[in-house]
Design brief:
Oligomer: single chain
Radius of gyration: 23 Å
Strand content: 15-25%
Organism: Hydrocarboniphaga daqingensis
CATH superfamily of the largest domain: Periplasmic binding protein-like II
Pfam family, one: ACT
Number of domains: 4
Shape: globular
Catalytic activity: chorismate = prephenate; prephenate + H(+) = 3-phenylpyruvate + CO2 + H2O
Order of helices and strands: HHHEHEHEEHEEEHHEHEHEEEHEEHE
Bound molecules: prephenic acid
Function: Catalyzes the Claisen rearrangement of chorismate to prephenate and the decarboxylation/dehydration of prephenate to phenylpyruvate.
CATH class of the largest domain: Alpha Beta
Main location: cytoplasm
Amino acid sequence: MKPTTLAQARALIDALDEKVQGLINERARLAEAVRDIKAQTGADGDHYRPAREAEVLRLAMARNTGPLSNEAMARLMREIMSACLALESPLTVAYLGPEGTYTQEAVYKHFGHAVEARAKRAIDEIFRDVDSGQTAYGVVPVENSIGGIVSNTLDELATANLSICGEVLLPVHHHLMAKVERIDQVKVIFSHAQSLAQCRHWLDATLPNASQAVVASNGAAAQQVAETGVGAAIASKAAAELYGLNVLASNIEDDPSNTTRFLIIGRKLSDPTGRDKTSLVFSAHKGSPGALFELLAPFAAAGINLTKLESRPSRRAAWDYNFYVDIDGHCEDPLIKPVLDEIRQRAALFRVLGSYPQAVI
Ligand SMILES: O=C(O)C(=O)C[C@]1(C(=O)O)C=C[C@@H](O)C=C1
């Protein structure tokens, strides 16, 4: 029945909300049953299953008939699953803090809001915390569509005994924020080096005489401006709200498609979902001509798509490099496994950093 008055429409919404709520709790009871089944089968108490979560989100999007968008529907399912998982056991997630960073946004986008997010001061601290079991998972930035790689993360990945179990793509929109109310009052701008670089044209055109100062993160910039009242910060809208700053200009990034990719790090390999990525690190034997070509050729021969290739100093010897490669597919896929074995034989160093579902939302 299509309502014709506001009161009728609201009464129908109330009745429907009651049913939706009942169904959500029924789902939560099933998640509790899953916990009991896992306990009986000797699972280790970590109930988070990245592959299953990706499947649930993909199913929600495939089933969706609107009017809500697929993404809006998936975000709702994301929060329901997050609350269900928190019933099983609250998940702890370390991220690059302080509060208000884009990494914190990436935590909530990937895990939903029912996690215990713990702010850390540096990327290596996050790796240490996850490795020692103090937190179950970590979220670290790995690359930006304009600024390129986050070298600390790649360097930590090469030596850490951890596994990448997910990725998050976060559109990054920068805002100028301060205690003062007018842009012409701003004499100094604080932010992370990458954020300043991503807003360079806007800053040159709008605030050519203001000086720029690099700090550890956008969140730290906003926190500092809130505490001292000095200057302005470039950070997220969430940071402006959290630290009570005035937004003086919005969306000041030079490229509106500016996106940062984050990785979820944990201690377990994720199951295959059919739409996965695998991250690898390897190095070639020094001094042999065509060594890198030899390591990459098996991918081409098997028709495996490379989505990324980076090199970094290996830190073992001068002019020795580690190559970081992302491919489409899971390391257990029957097509991929023998190819990885072949490359392992040919490489000086070879490690699978993780296989994980491609970002869903
Ligand atoms: O299917 C599971 O293994 C569950 O624990 C249930 C559930 C869910 O709510 O759907 C919750 C958490 C997991 O990360 C994945 C899925």
